[in-house]
Amino acid sequence: MVTNTKVIIVGAGIAGPVLAVFLKTRGHDPIIYERLPGPAEGGHVFVLQPNGIRVLSLIPELVEQIPGHPLDGLIHCSCLDGVEDILRFGFPLIGVRRPEFQQLLIDTAKKYGVEIKWSHQAIEFEQSEDTVKVTFANGTKDTASFVVGCDGLHSNTRITLFGKEKVDFTGMVRRRLSLVNNFGNGRHMIAYPIAEDNITTRGAEAKEDWRMQNEEQQNGIRNGPFSESTWGFGTGDLVKTGQKIVKYGLYDRPKLESWFKGRIVLLGDAAHPSSPHLGQGANQAFEDIYHFMRLLRKHNPSADQLSTELLLRVFTDYQDLRLLRTSELVRGARQQGELRVVEGLDACRARDEAIRKVSDNDAARKARHEMWSGPFTENEM
Ligand SMILES: Cc1cc2nc3c(=O)[nH]c(=O)nc-3n(C[C@H](O)[C@H](O)[C@H](O)COP(=O)(O)OP(=O)(O)OC[C@H]3O[C@@H](n4cnc5c(N)ncnc54)[C@H](O)[C@@H]3O)c2cc1C
């Protein structure tokens, strides 16, 4: 029997488990369905920024357990013609490895009594007046009051609601060897002080699937042009000695006109997948969660049965607040990527100069401040 407040979350990646904890602690009955048999082992390192951490801090003792390194600052440096040059310094963040961070979020969701069903790929959604019935690839079905699609870049929920569209390959691939932004001629590396590092280059499309390259492919990169000693600040050596190398394409998708249909709504990468050049994908997913939960509570404080009309109000307010904001960030991230990886010495010098200037630029400082001071000053969730 379906309770009125049962919520199906599709995807136990980064957003799903966090949303589940907030739903559970605020009177709903969430269940997560994940297509993989368990937490993904591979994956990139990423940076949690103040706006995302602010949302996570609403879950008691979670931030203290984040398995990452607090970063004291961001350094941009460049090496052209063998000359090492520091371009600009910046701010405090936490660098995490996706697998350990995801595991913490899953353990936290379980601690709060959230059920996670692995090996359940959602393939079909059938909506009625008060419920949504979800069918999974293994033949099982479940029904809930509403569904939140947290199923990432290749979201089935999104396809089901709005049809198939082409993902936009940004023309770059990132090679993760394990926050210094290190620019070179036709290349860019972000290095996080946790164990390993990242390089972004232009290259052939490599679908992002959180998996490792085989040993031969990894050796090809270790011994390839990115390990040249002429790439300064020890960057070439980091490539040469990297223990694990993952290569995947960097994608975004065109802006959607709407994020929901009936009783199904999108959140996180399913709604607004972004190339990672602003490091805001997961952080924005956490902002989505904050506002979604705040609006759900505002319109339905007792977490009672939600009429379609009431749900429409929640979904519309959530979408109106978030759609434009996130699409601007997706565009901004793509522009950053274009700026970072340029080829030819003249273009590289122009890039270095542009980056150097940004440190003195009030507009950029204001934009960063605005981004990191979200999504709330006083918790209204
Ligand atoms: C190279 C790189 C670097 C990045 N760096 C940063 C960074 O520094 N900071 C930052 O904030 N973000 C960063 N990101 C983005 C960040 O990883 C994503 O924004 C974040 O993972 C989105 O979380 P999500 O839960 O929406 O999607 P995901 O984490 O992708 O999770 C989706 C989950 O849904 C599951 N799933 C998919 N389809 C189905 C289905 N049909 N049924 C059931 N389950 C399904 C998937 O298996 C997966 O577990 C980076 C991304 C990349 C690629």
Written overview of the protein:
The two termini are 29 Å apart. Helix 1 runs parallel beside helix 4 (98-111), helix 1 (15-25) packs parallel to helix 8 (281-299) and helix 8 packs antiparallel against helix 9 (308-340). Strands 6-5-14-15-16-13-17 form a seven-stranded mixed β-sheet, with helices on both faces. A six-stranded mixed β-sheet has the order 8-2-1-12-19-18, with helices on both faces. A three-stranded antiparallel β-sheet has the order 3-7-4. It has helices spanning 15-25, 50-56, 62-65, 98-111, 156-162, 215-222, 235-241, 281-299, 308-340, 345-358, 362-373; strands at residues 6-10, 29-33, 45-48, 68-71, 75-80, 83-89, 93-97, 115-117, 122-127, 132-136, 141-144, 146-149, 168-176, 180-184, 187-191, 197-202, 246-252, 260-261, 264-266. The protein has a single domain, classed as FAD/NAD(P)-binding domain (3-Layer(bba) Sandwich). It is 36% helix and 25% strand. The chain is globular, with a radius of gyration of 21 Å. The chain is α/β, with parallel strands linked by helices. The mean pLDDT is 84. The protein has eleven helices and 19 strands. The protein binds flavin-adenine dinucleotide. The site of flavin-adenine dinucleotide has 33 residues, from helix 1, strand 3 and helix 8.
Mean pLDDT: 84
What general form does the structure show?
Answer: globular
Secondary-structure element pattern, one letter each? EHEEHHEEEEHEEEEEHEEEEHHEEEHHHH
Going by CATH, the homologous superfamily would be FAD/NAD(P)-binding domain
Distinct ligands = flavin-adenine dinucleotide
Whole-number total of structural domains: 1
Here the CATH topology equals FAD/NAD(P)-binding domain
Radius of gyration: 21 Å
Are there runs of 5+ residues with pLDDT below 50, and where?
none
Termini Cα gap: 29 Å
- What profile does the largest beta sheet have? 7 strands, mixed
For the largest beta sheet, what order do the strands appear in spatially? 6-5-14-15-16-13-17
Q: Which structural class do the helices and strands define?
A: alpha/beta
Give the number of helices: 11
Q: How many beta-strand elements?
A: 19
CATH class membership: Alpha Beta
Relative strand content: 15-25%
Helix content: 25-40%
The CATH level-2 architecture is identified as: 3-Layer(bba) Sandwich
